[in-house]
Amino acid sequence: MANGHQVETHNTAHFRHDYASDQGDLRRLYEQAKIDQWNAARDIDWSVPLEGDGGLISDDLGDIHGTRFWDALSENDRIELNRRVSRWRLSTLVQGEHGAMLLCSQLVENVQGQDAKLFQATQVADEARHNEVLQRYLDLRLDGEIYPVGGNVREIFDTLLGTSSWHLKTIGLQLVAETFAVSLFRMLAESSKDAVLRQVCRRILQDEARHMGFAMLSLPAIVGEATEAEHREMEDFAVWALSRTLSGIFPLAAYQEMGFSKADLDEIKRYRRERAAGGDETAFRKYFRRDLHGGLVRNLRKVGLLTERITPGLESFGISLAAA
Length: 324
Fold this sequence. Notes:
By secondary structure, the protein is an all-alpha fold. The chain has helices spanning 24-35, 68-72, 75-110, 114-142, 151-162, 166-191, 195-225, 228-246, 252-257, 262-277, 283-303, 311-316.
């Protein structure tokens, strides 16, 4: 399959013959989704010129900022690296939003309640719009070039698309991936050099908060009624999704294209780990980590999956239960 791949799936479609509202909180979330719809072609001011030095994201978000590698770069190379890292990050987001669109189309089938189905139909439209708006941005600012899908992104969505369980899909997407996305888009909305990218991220954010809301409203009852074996399965799946979401987010291809050697990259990765472990991160990175970890702890607790059993797994990712 040119420029793509196939995932074999098996889904059970629940065709309801009773269309009455059955969950008031989800119906209100659906109503809010209808109010919040926006048009990527009309509601972003694409005419705003790129100002500044030509970089798109804050230089502070670069792994080598403040190191000898950064000091050795010319001003032009710093800008070029910024743009390549931006392209890598946005490519990952485009692919993630596309995977989310496919996954939510499955959830329309999988979920059983009328209000859950109506809301998931709005999320399909949301994810399609996010896919569109980020690709438009790449076309406008970065000539439409996109990096290949990252291994972790592919593994996450292939796994989520392949499972037939709607609640495992929801744990992986709305509970874990959307919590990550909210923190990332919030950081980009605050830190990006480009006014257009800030507009795009703020628009996407208003949708992502609703998507997390679906998990907060739909999962607690399922988790609360689960058998011990089912509960363990959901806990393990949440930890797996976290491990894949929080790792493999290094823009290797961008640095390779800039001529960094394997020895350079090993040193950069080591410096990155040491800086994170020592709390010696830039302001925006600290903000992102604090926001993400706090959101993950709060959301896992709200749905009933924050247990002593998974605490060691969370701590291995650097997540403290005191984060929220």
